[in-house]
From TrEMBL:
Residues 60-82 are annotated as: Disordered. The lineage of its organism: Archaea, Methanobacteriati, Methanobacteriota, Stenosarchaea group, Halobacteria. The chain crosses the membrane at residues 7-26, 32-51. This is Uncharacterized protein. Keywords: Membrane, Transmembrane, Transmembrane helix.
Length: 82
């Protein structure tokens, strides 16, 4: 999984500069191309943070075993009656 984050770290500036340069070469003004390139870089960061979020070793092993962090009898932590 660390390779994925290495690629993402390399793709962030590449997307920002590459998309901006490509759109500028195609004919879009620089002031319009920079926000588009930045939104592509932001989408990469959002994907890395929320879609393929980094997990610690305990969560990775429990998810691989099919036992999530929540049990079926208590779906929400701390929702018991006191």
């Amino acid at each position: 999984m660390s390779r994925y984050y290495d690629y993402v770290l390399g793709l962030i500036p590449a997307a920002l500069l590459g998309v901006t340069a490509f759109l500028n070469l195609v004919g879009l003004s620089l002031t319009a191309a920079v926000p588009v390139g930045a939104s592509v870089a932001l989408a990469l960061m959002g994907h890395a943070m929320f879609v393929r979020a980094p997990l610690d070793d305990a969560a990775r092993t429990s998810d691989a075993a099919g036992t999530g962090s929540r049990s079926a009898s208590a779906p929400f932590a701390g929702s018991g009656s006191d």
